[in-house]
Amino acid sequence: MTNIDFRRRGLFRASGAAVLSASAVALLAGCEKMATAQTGNTQGDVQILNVALSLEHEAISAYQLGAMSGLLQKPVLDVAVLFQSHHKEHRDALIATIRKMGGTPVAAKSDAEVGRALNAASLKSQADVLRLAQRLERGAANAYIGVIPSFGDRALAQVSARLAADETMHWTALSQALQDTLPAKALTFGA
């Protein structure tokens, strides 16, 4: 059995499989014609995509827990719900891609399980909820940035960059809501 790093930063790394194949990312991006022209390790890609799907499930639950906590006030609550909808779109794209590749999508854990894993009981304020979401979003951005250099095809690298940009936008909005200062140095993400 392959050991997979389940942290966001290690999302696309697995023992024996460095990154998603070009065909997996093409399917994820909705480019079926491009995907059929690519070759790759389908089983390994499905496994890695399922890790990504698990993390999207986690993000959806985390935003649900935050929304239901009573700790988020408008307009922050509205933004959290919007970001949750983005993660649902990511989830749906991953599920469709996994199925197109002949795999079985991993099931979501219950919100209660995710809450325990994220120590949601320790969340006592809006800032606590935002810090948790901020941490998860930064990890997602770094994971997508980490896969970009592996692609020779610019279109595939662009898909990963777009996903990273989406996660970075989430991180930035959360940072603004927390009134964090901007990073003092350049090249904040992907390191």
Give a verbal description of the structure.
The protein is an all-alpha fold and 191 residues long. It has a single domain (8-177), classed as Ferritin (Up-down Bundle), CATH 1.20.1260.10. Helices cover 62% and strands 0% of the residues. It contains seven helices and no strands. It has helices spanning 22-28, 32-37, 42-68, 76-100, 111-117, 126-147, 154-177. The radius of gyration is 17 Å and the shape is globular.
Brief characterization of the structure:
By secondary structure, the chain is mainly alpha-helical.
Key phrases:
Ferritin; 191 residues; mainly alpha; globular
Total helical segments: 7
Q: What is CATH's topology name?
A: Ferritin
Strand content: under 5%
State the distance separating the first and last CA atoms. 29 Å
Q: What composes the largest sheet? A: none
Percent range of helical residues:
55-70%
What structural category do the secondary elements indicate? mainly alpha
**Shape summary:** globular
CATH class: Mainly Alpha
- Contiguous uncertain segments of 5+ residues: 1-19, 33-39
What is the typical, i.e. mean, pLDDT? 79
- Number of separate domains: 1
Secondary-structure element order, as H and E? HHHHHHH
Proper CATH architecture? Up-down Bundle
Task: Count the beta strands.
Answer: 0
Any idea what the radius of gyration is?
A: 17 Å
The CATH superfamily title: Ferritin, core subunit, four-helix bundle
